[in-house]
Amino acid sequence: MEFSEQIIKILDNLSDKFGMTIDWSNKNVIPYLQTLTTKYINYEVDISIFWIIICVIGIIVGALLIYIDWKDDEDDLPVYATIGLLIIIFSAVFIIIQSIDIITAKTFPEKIILNYLLEIKKYI
């Protein structure tokens, strides 16, 4: 079974739960669905880029904290350096996760749509 057939089956199931029927032979439904999926994929990519930008800012803040702690040698506890290192590690891991999401969205957009529809189906 192809991804598009799975998406149609899930949409049919969702529409049945809402008491609607979708005529898939209608010429307006398929282009609308294609536009909707394109918009959702672009939304996923844009959100991932937003979080990558936030994480880059986090890496800069973490590096500044490490620099401040390195420059200020008054205390023995490297509190700022520890916090900065944790921020850098968290941000780097999150950048990797978001990059994988972007690659998945651009390579297999059907997977993103299918996962989203399955999430919706769980809560209905």
What would you call the structural class?
mainly alpha
Mean pLDDT across the residues is 84
- The outline comes out as elongated
Number of strands: 0
Number of DSSP helical runs: 4
Strand content: under 5%
Uncertain stretches of 5 or more adjacent residues: none
What profile does the largest beta sheet have?
A: none
Q: What is the percent of helical residues?
A: over 70%
Rg calculated over all Cα atoms: 22 Å
Order of helices and strands: HHHH
Q: Work out the count of structural domains.
A: 1
Please give the alpha-carbon distance between the first and last residues: 24 Å
Transmembrane segments: 49-68, 80-103
Keywords: Membrane, Transmembrane, Transmembrane helix
Task: Give a structural overview.
About 80% of the residues lie in helices and about 0% in strands. The chain is mostly helical and about 120 residues long. It has one domain. Helix 1 packs parallel to helix 4, helix 2 (about 30-70) crosses helix 4 and helix 3 packs across helix 4 (about 110-124). The longest helix is centred in the middle third of the chain and has 43 residues, at about 30-70. Keywords: Membrane, Transmembrane, Transmembrane helix.
